[in-house]
């Protein structure tokens, strides 16, 4: 287990969290040419790999599957671009960003307007124990878990199990849950977003099936989508689920403190950083979500204290999958066994 003292020292505490919003505001303006370039170098390979994979069906199904796996990375990057559109960080025009996001939402199986709203709720409530439930990984405190019935404890354990979160969860989220505007069912605009996205997805799959049968769907669409979804869920998980993350009761919660201290800096190899569109620099993103993804490394170059803050390597991130309960006393995310040991020692 990591040394808690070391982790605390990694916190970017040299400036008050609120001050960073003003400091980082100079990075918020997107460059239309750069944004267009990033879109082209993502959509282009995505389309080319789809064409090559379709062609390879007549050569080797294993080749088709390999190309589909490669294409998952570009699908993940398209989702990251859609994510920037949702924050108004990709184009200066909000209208252009929104319509690009809606088109990309068909490829990512994510109704754009629904996701934009739920993600906005996530940004405005991350780390707030009184506002859990939309756009986050369900997390209980140690005391809340102890107060559950044995059956509900089992349900929570099953939910937090890596097989559920990272094997079953991605498919359920993108293929099933995203088909309805869950949490926003009271407003017609979100039903329209979900249903139009669903209709576009069905139309696209019908065209693929008409011209290519089931194999393009089974060997290209499904593998690339599932792999991209799994990578996306993992990235979202490690962005906020780590030992020294930040949770507070509603009366003590502060937006900017939660943004800075409750989001990780996931240090990835350059090629993975590129495919994930720098989303690992998540603490900076949460402090100022209007910064385009391609400017996030610029922030780290200019501000070393942010580059060192909340750092997490891939190896360190694997430990996080064993952490499940927030301890309000020690301000740590604990495993079930750690929480049980603390109960005995209390």
List the helices and strands and how they pair.
Layout: H1 4-9, H2 17-24, H3 32-56, H4 61-86, H5 94-107, H6 112-125, E1 140-141, H7 142-146, H8 150-160, H9 162-176, H10 188-212, H11 215-240, H12 255-261, E2 265-266, H13 270-275, H14 282-287, H15 296-302, H16 304-307, E3 311-312, H17 314-320, E4 325-327, E5 332-334, H18 336-345
Parallel strand pairs: 1-4, 2-3
Antiparallel strand pairs: 4-5
Helix pairs in contact: 3-4, 4-5, 4-11, 5-10, 9-11
Please describe what this structure looks like.
The protein is mostly helical and 346 residues long. The chain is built from 18 helices and five strands. It has helices at 4-9, 17-24, 32-56, 61-86, 94-107, 112-125, 142-146, 150-160, 162-176, 188-212, 215-240, 255-261, 270-275, 282-287, 296-302, 304-307, 314-320, 336-345; strands at 140-141, 265-266, 311-312, 325-327, 332-334. It has a three-stranded mixed beta sheet with strand order 1-4-5. A two-stranded parallel ribbon has the order 2-3. Strand 4 and strand 5 (332-334) form a beta hairpin. Helix 3 runs antiparallel to helix 4 (61-86), helix 4 packs antiparallel against helix 5 and helix 5 (94-107) packs across helix 10 (188-212). The longest helix is centred in the first third of the chain and has 26 residues, at 61-86. It is globular. The two termini are 21 Å apart. The relative contact order is 0.15.
